[in-house]
Amino acid sequence: MVIGAIADTLGRGIESVSGTVSETFFEPVIRLGVTGLARSGKTVFITSLVANLLDRGRMAGLEAASSGRIEAVYLQPQPDDTVPRFEFESHLAAMTGTTPHWPESTRSVSELRVSLRVRPNGLLSGLSGPRTVHLDIVDYPGEWLLDLGLLDQSYAKWSAEALSKARARNEGARFIARLEAVDGSEKLDEATASELAREWTRYLNAARDAGYSDCTPGRFLLPGDLEGSPALTFAPLPEGEAPRGSLAREFARRFEAYKSQVVKPFFRSHFARIDRQVVLVDALGAIHSGPRAVEDLRQALSGILGSFRPGRNTFLTSILGKRVDKILFAATKADHLHHEQHPRLQAIMEALVADARRQADFSGASTGAMAIASLRATVEEMRRVGGEDLGVVRGALLESGRQAALHPGDLPADPSALLAPARDGAEAWLDGDYDVMRFAPAPLSLRSGEGPPHIRLDRAAEFLIGDKLR
Fold first, then answer.
1. pLDDT tens per residue, range 214-257
2. Which among 209, 216, 181 has a CA at the least distance from the CA of 196?
3. Pick the CATH number of 2-140+270-377+444-469 from 3.30.70.1230, 3.40.50.300, 3.40.50.11930, 3.40.50.2300
């Protein structure tokens, strides 16, 4: 039996290596991870990207498309039989139908394979015919990505940091008050444990709704079939004694079980196989929520990049374990701003991830920051206000359907005007508030060969996969 097990393991290893060699030399595969924090538009990004690859009339920024080297694009079954398929067709119908609406947000892992038949360029163009490149798009909640940072933390360290954040946020007051009546050294009582877990979950949801990004554990927000399980029935406790059989000892054990049975399997099954990544960020929403939300976002983005193991892939690492070699941080909802302010939004995005990018650049990864809109829901106008021309955007409000024009406020030309007060813990912006409206998708009339309208989605695709299509 031992010899059979060894032979079986070797056989699987040979199949894995041969599959990797085949992909490397014949039909290369790009595994693109798409994630983002709450309300960043992951589902819309993937749907619009795939639709615009199928119909490339709006993809001038993707060189392989603008040069005509992409001969065909088609969808195929994803290679992972146990992962749900990304519901591209239903999401596209929601966005482009006669009564367009935003599709349901990401709640679990899903996948879609897009195959591109591409003619090579340069010296190889006359020596070989078209080749097929497979793009495997993996969609997963950004809340789960934040959990990767827990792998290097003990329960005591996580509790101290989590409680510090909860005390600094208004949304945490109810949980902190409940905690005052709890003694972690007392014998475990499941009713108390469940109540604390529910209160912590309520706080995490409230904090996320208030614009905060760092809300862990992420599965408390999106539990799926784990809801009510012991692995999701714990909460942070102040440091103190934890005798055997106590609440604190059991919470520490469940925290470790959460890491080993929930976080690590996700890393092994999905995250560790990604070689290109886009992180979508609702930077405008964080700015609207205030300085503390912006600083929380900056810290979350820095922690996210530390989870990516960034660096250059080689033939050997593609067999033994990939490292993410390109990461794009994209500020979404650029269509909520007049185009004159897009460079400022991009500069703010670059400043938010500056520390994280330096770490990635040092290790050999290529990083980028961009302001995009996966599906353009507004049109731009110039209006005369107070004797001056003011750039606004107009669209249908999500709640009422009423047409409205928005000028959310001028973003600062110097990103430090936002990041400095955010780092200093300011309660509010000195220069006033930044407005946010929620727009519904606009009815579309697409010409043949055109995908949905967007802002810089083609440039994002060029950064992420353009080099693999040459």
1. 899 999 998 878 888 999 999 999 999 999 999 999 999 999 99
2. 181
3. 3.40.50.300
